[in-house]
């Protein structure tokens, strides 16, 4: 592993431990050249996935893009970074388990929305407003009404 401070080719692992969700390894490293210390994270990658976007454009799956989109939706909401990371790990695992090397972007958006509705309803609405491309206030109002109906049904099931 190259040192991010001085660029030295060899660094030493000082400490390794699994992450909270068990999906990655956290390593503390130090550089023998400059003495700098830094942390790396290793994750299992079962296969290289390609995202098929509109217009048949293709690009490699970028888990950081999923993380950033969820962070934007959940900005200033009471959701911990660890919860977001756990949700992203779950989404990526689901995508890898499909067995297909190419995943439609719409499928990723659907999985992100499912994760967000479990984490925070406001974050879910924020993400949906962009994902579903609301153009008029009526679009937004209809979507919020659907959510309210779903939550009412969910509360009824819990109380039964």
Detailed description of the structure:
This protein has 160 residues and is α+β, with helices and mostly antiparallel strands. It folds into 2 domains: 1-44; 46-135. Helix content is 48%, strand content 19%. The strands form 2 sheets. It has a 3-stranded antiparallel sheet with strand order 1-2-3, with no helix packed on it. Strand 4 (50-52) and strand 5 (58-60) form a beta hairpin. Helix 1 (63-73) crosses helix 4 and helix 3 (105-119) runs antiparallel to helix 4. The termini are far apart. The mean pLDDT is 90.
Describe the structure concisely for a colleague.
The protein has 160 residues and is of the alpha+beta class. The protein has five helices and six strands.
Fill in the keyword field for this structure.
three-stranded antiparallel β-sheet; 160 residues; elongated; 2 domains; single chain; alpha+beta; three-stranded mixed β-sheet
Run of helices and strands: EEEEEHHEHHH
Shape: elongated
- The proportion of strand residues reads 15-25%
Low-confidence blocks of residues: none
Write down how many β-strands occur, each being a DSSP E stretch of 2 or more residues.
6
Major sheet, described briefly? 3 strands, antiparallel
Cα end-to-end separation: 56 Å
Structural class: alpha+beta
**Mean of all residue-level pLDDT scores:** 90
Q: Radius of gyration, Cα only, in angstroms?
A: 20 Å
Number of helices: 5
What is the share of helical residues? Answer: 40-55%
* Count of all domains: 2
Q: What is the topology, as strand order, of the major beta sheet? A: 1-2-3
């Amino acid at each position: 592993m190259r040192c991010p401070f001085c660029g030295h080719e060899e660094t030493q692992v000082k400490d390794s431990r699994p992450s909270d969700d068990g999906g990655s390894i956290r390593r503390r490293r130090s550089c023998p050249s400059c003495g700098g210390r830094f942390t790396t994270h290793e994750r299992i990658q079962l296969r290289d996935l390609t995202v098929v976007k509109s217009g048949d454009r293709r690009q490699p799956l970028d888990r950081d893009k999923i993380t950033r989109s969820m962070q934007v939706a959940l900005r200033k909401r009471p959701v911990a970074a660890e919860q977001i990371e756990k949700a992203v790990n779950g989404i990526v695992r689901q995508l890898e388990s499909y067995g297909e090397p190419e995943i439609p972007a719409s499928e990723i958006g659907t999985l992100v929305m499912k994760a967000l509705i479990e984490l925070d309803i406001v974050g879910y609405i924020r993400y949906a407003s962009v994902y579903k491309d609301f153009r008029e206030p009526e679009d937004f109002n209809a979507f919020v009404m659907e959510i309210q109906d779903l939550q009412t049904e969910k509360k009824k099931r819990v109380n039964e």
